[in-house]
Amino acid sequence: MWRDFVFSLRTLRRSPVFAAVAVVSLALGIGANTAIFSLVDQVILRLLPVRDPKSLVILHREYNLNGSSTADNYESVFSYAMYRELRDHAKGFDGVIARGGGAVTVLSNGSAESAGADIVSGNFFNMLGVRAAAGRLFTADDDRTPGAHPVVVLSHRYWAKRFAASPAIVGQSIQVNGFPMTVIGVSAVGFNGVFSGNDPDVYLTLMMQRVFKPTWQALDKPSFRWLNLMARLAPNTTIQQAQAASAPAHRAAIEIELAGQRNKVDAKTIASYKLELHPAAQGINELRRRQQTPLLALMAMAGLVLLIACANVASLTIARATSRQREMGIRLAIGATRWNLIRQLLLEGAILAIAGGSLGLLVADWSTRVLLRTLPQDYAGDWVKSGLNSRLLLFAFTAAILSALLFALMPALQSSKRDISGALRTSSALGTGGVVWFRKCVVAAQVALSIVLAVAAGLFSNTLYNLAQVNLGFHSEQMLTFKIDAALSRPHVADAVAFYRDLERRIAAIPGVAGVGSSSAGPFSNMNSGGNMTLEGYQPKPHEDVGGSQTAIGPGYFAALGIPLRAGREFGDRDVAGAPKAVVVNQAFVKKYYPGRSPLGLHLMFGGSDHPVLDREIVGIASDSRVGVRDEVIPTVYYPYTQWVEPERLAFYVRAGRGDGNALAAPIREAVRAADPNVPLIYLQPVSLSVEDTMYAERLLAMLSAAFGALAALLAAIGLYGVVAYAVARRTPEIGLRMALGALPGDVLRMILLEAGKLTAAGVIAGTAAALVLGRLVQSQLFGVQASDPRILAGAIGFLAIVALAAAIVPGWRASRISPVTALKYE
Predict the structure, then answer these.
(1) Vertex 479, ends 474 and 482: CA angle to 5°?
(2) Which of 90, 395, 455, 606 fits as disulfide partner to 246, beta carbons 3.0 to 4.6 Å?
(3) Which residues sit opposite 135 in a β-bridge?
(4) Which residues of 589-625 are buried (b: 16+ CB within 10 A; e: fewer)?
(5) pLDDT classification of 428: cutoffs 50, 70, 90
(6) 580: how many CB neighbours lie within 10 A of its CB?
(7) pTM for the whole thing?
(8) What's the CA gap between 61 and 532, in Å, rounded?
């Protein structure tokens, strides 16, 4: 084997151009696949770094009860009363844990900053099997009495970033939302919570809820839902068994939630409310939910590129094997077995593939770093990282070996046939009909795969273009946005309102500021609020959920964002606490609830009641605006934050009079600092960048599909050029005879191009069919375009036709210039 290895290296060294082209082709294919697999592995396949993650389940429900809810993810949320009942009485579980998420203000060493926080049950770390990197973690005793244990756990990442991984911080006091709390420990390295991409900086216990959100009374309100619940299945218990065993405790918890409500739910309806258990080995994986389809689409496209690269190398290998037929015949004649030749040729292929895979790892590492740098700000936190690991090495090695089998096996079998006399007689420039047929099939396959990638590039590029043309309903240019939460340190409405009004005045006074607006759920703020409503003059249909977005805004909001008022007025200085309550509705609200008439002067109330008090007057109608590019416009009711019941976080929008607004960043930070140095500013950036961030997946798909399509077309062109040139070499005597009998150069060129056209047509037909089938799988990722769009199909076919013509014209032109005398002497 060692002698075969050394001989293979010497053989490849004698063909440096072939070896270099093969290695680079495979490196690009394997590198692209490894880079995308790195993201797929981390986002889709990776399990939580906890004990026995496959026994974890997350609790889910589809039914709705009266009350309110808040969540930082897509999973179901439950009340604290529900959690307590399931924790103490549900069967089929080894434990039930709860978590909620949000932002807090951490003050340490005189410096205040916003930090991500998870508020968790006392058994959270113990049930998951997470150990402490320093100090200790929460226990059940830390979570028994509200406010009794002001302790906090730091995440390992935050500990290293903020406190330089100093063990001295354990036992020290920091302020969370102005409340002194003792740091008791640091969570294990690599553990970033159970919500992918969330990466909390600090952990608090449920009993410290009033520190986490001072304006909430979440522990005392059974109808307030804010907690994700997870559980660990008891040993030898299936999900179905645990779901049935936990049903009695779940029904009892529903009775607790419904206690005291005027509208009782009958027992039959309660019995229909089911608690579902879903596998949670990956935790709450919102990254997977949002990016699974794009990543799998990219993985499929990268796989097609690797197949095309393998086909190209196979075509080159066949051509090289043809030139070695005499060598193979001699080796067979002097006693070599067919297996010796196959092993030799497969070993040469394996060397090329492993070299390509090794270079591909460097390509993958560089590509992954580039992809991660294009991620939106704090898109995935520490959840997704670059760098090589054992799983990537195994993937790259496997891809290399499979590639070697794909491109080396057929040439090895063909070259090792025991036709000794034929091999010794055959000219090295020629080949058998089987070789020619195989190379033609390879090229047709390359064209087919290239068609699929070209169609994908067209679909995703059109999607990105269509999203960029969406009318957002406001002007995102020349505007900065940031978030700020005065409610964390000012739980009283009057104090929070006074702070926000003072901050608005300070920012409005900055030179160059043309407008200032604020909103509790503004466009691209990733904040939302809503609920049911009771409307004057509207009779709900049976079981209809009358509601919409309920957004608190400041005066000047519509003017700052450029949202036109269609009727009525905007809020002003008269809309203060104690004044008659006013609201502005959007056109979608009018269309749904008051079609064909004006709702100005009518009244509504937030929530429902047996004896409603319609205390809010509709004073204006605003144009529709979108909170996200793909999001549909929903009915929205705006009300002045000066008439809050409880203060909330606000997103501010600052419009510049000129320029892109970036020059205002420093003065805005200074204005916030002057208003209160202990209130941190969150995510100051241009609104246009926020809009772009929401299209990250579409931009990535468009960019990479175009790159993969271009690479595939290039490889297909090289393959087609090789086949046509090889055919011309084989048919040189025939071409000379034709020209001697009177054929014109144009006739010869037409004959060569026709043969290339047949190969291309076969590939186009197969590729178009495959593109239509695969297009349906990514239809959910498209926007404003259908997978079967004839313009895109025609464009892809036209593009490949031009590529094929360019690849075939050179060898065809050369064939048309062959001298008949030279051709007839060819043999």
Answers:
(1) 105
(2) 90
(3) 185
(4) bbeebbeeeebbebbbbbebeeeeeeebbbbbbbbbb
(5) very low
(6) 11
(7) 0.77
(8) 19
Residue 566 is given by DSSP the state E
Q: Which amino acid is residue 29, in one-letter code?
A: G
User: In angstroms, rounded to a whole number, what is the distance separating the alpha carbons of residues 515 and 554?
Assistant: 12
- 8 A C-beta contact, residue 728 and residue 811: yes
Rounded CA separation 740/735 (Å) = 9
Taking the C-alpha atoms of residue 509 and residue 648, their distance in angstroms, rounded to an integer, is 24
Phi, psi of 326 (to 5 degrees): -65, -40
Residue 5 — very low, low, confident or very high, per pLDDT cuts 50/70/90? low
Residue 327, amino acid? E
Residue 306 corresponds to which tokens in the numbers above?
Answer: 């690797």
Kindly tell me if the per-residue pLDDT of 165 is higher than 90. yes
Residue/partner pairs of 747-753 with CB below 8 Å, 24 or more apart: 748/812, 748/815, 748/816, 748/818, 749/812, 749/813, 749/815, 749/816, 752/724, 752/727, 752/728, 752/808, 752/811, 752/812, 752/815, 752/816, 753/805, 753/808, 753/809, 753/812
231 pairs with which residues across the strands? 57, 96
% of residues, the chain, pLDDT over 70 = 89
Quote the tokens at residue 472: 């957002």
Question: Residue 329: what pLDDT?
Answer: 67
Characterize 742-772 residue by residue with b for buried, 16 or more Cβ atoms within 10 angstroms of its Cβ, and e for exposed.
Answer: ebeeeebbebbbebbbebbebbbebbbebbe
DSSP state of 265: P
